[in-house]
Amino acid sequence: MSLETMRPNPTWDAASYEDAVDTLAAHSDELVYKIWAGDWCKDCRALLPDFGAALEAAEIPDERIEEFSLDQDKRGPGVEEYDIEYIPTIVVENDEGAEITRFVEEEDVPPAVWLADEIEAALESDAA
């Protein structure tokens, strides 16, 4: 079941987030985005439409985006396996299934910006 909250925000301005979009796009064929959320959740409704728009702007293939819809008790697929406590939670993994980073509920910047910075830092330190 796909999440309504992941439907891209049509008014999101990719040009205002060019660095984040470029970082996500640069790794579009090597990372998987796993998103746990609920359409009933106010934080999800506030944050995920812009994140959906960022993934769309970065041309992330649909097969690299996995959405997990949780009920109001935050139960659903992968919750225990990934230790999901707060939503939205976005886990970014490489093709081997190793976690690169995760965004949990509320950071001080939008999910796309936060994840792009974390991805860049993690992958640069791996390359060094």
TrEMBL record:
Domain Thioredoxin as annotated: residue spans: 1-128
CDD domains assigned: TRX_family (cd02947)
This protein's name: Thioredoxin family protein
Organism of this sequence: Natrinema zhouii
Annotated InterPro entries: Thioredoxin-like_sf, Thioredoxin_domain
UniProt cross-references to Pfam families, sorted A to Z: Thioredoxin (PF00085)
